[in-house]
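I am still getting used to backbone structure tokens and would like to learn alongside you. Would you supply a protein for us yourself, any chain you care to pick? Start from the sequence, derive the backbone structure tokens from it, and show both lines together. Go ahead whenever you are ready, and we will take it from there.
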Amino acid sequence: MINFNELDLRKLTGSFLILLTILFATFYLVSNPSPRITLNGAGSSFVNPLMSSWADDYHLLHPDIRINYASIGSGGGIQQLMSKTVDFGASDAPLNSEEFETLGNPLHLPVTVGGVVVAYNLPGIGDGLRLSGSVLADIFLGKITAWDDARIQSLNPGLSLPSENILVVHRSDGSGTTFVFSDYLSHVSNDWKEKVGTGKSLSWPTGIGGKGNDGVTAAIVGNEYSIGYIELSYAITNQLSTVALENKAGEFVQANSSTIQAAVDNSAASLPAGKEPWENVTLVDAPGFGSYPISSFVYVLIYQDLNNLASYEAAQTLVDFLWYIIHDGQALADPLYYVPLADSVVAINEQTLTLVTYNGQALEVPSPIQK
């Protein structure tokens, strides 16, 4: 019979744990090999839930390829693309003329459509608080400061609104969501347009700031009597109540796939080619019945010549990933409360991807990996 003293048992246990660790590490490395190609993107927090799903799904389809995406806001994504520290950017706002010129021949690829909702935390009052565009603008201008203000009450005669101060929550970072929201307010309020205007970063007249859609969501959840603007999926995931906004047709509508799609369908403006400026493209305050008034494309932004990437193979992989996004990847949009692209938009993107090169050398669209 073998006897083990305490020291022997500790040595045996330690050796066993070391062996177990080595076996686990070996198994992990075998089952999760280092990716052959890694692509890095950054930008819009608006699209982050969908972009994360695209990256995960593409990795399942191609285990040797990994897509990393940093949700740092549209302004940050554009800056990272300008400094060439990422392979692609994402923004809810199209590039303005200065950004377009600075980047030099950038390409816009609209990859999905989403809605910016006005979420609120009013105890005892659920979804569907009605607001007009002008009343919403005056809340964010700090001109309407109490929930039982006569202008809010007149739009909601059936509700008993509290005599509490309104806490406005806005983005603190450069944000495409802010661009879309402020673009809407500029369309429906001359006062807002003159005093604040449209942009990714603003001088806010009132309220507190939160970083990213996550930060604004957390601030609304954590503060009763607050109101703020976030992407639809964040409101649904966090079970936040959302405003029914008056649209151009005089209806009070809430954001969902149907009303966001109606905004796209009812927007009269024709879309430019991917290599052209998109600065004047907007879906806000769309005409027609059923249109949700704060809807927007989300864009992936890339250089036309991908010499900012490490190799031809990496550039081809990015084109392949974008081809996946605008085709098979669209099936992931609706479950996450985004709207899939219309065929006409897909066709524009397909043409745009044929323009992409690496050091002047043409890339395959679609490449054999996608066929």
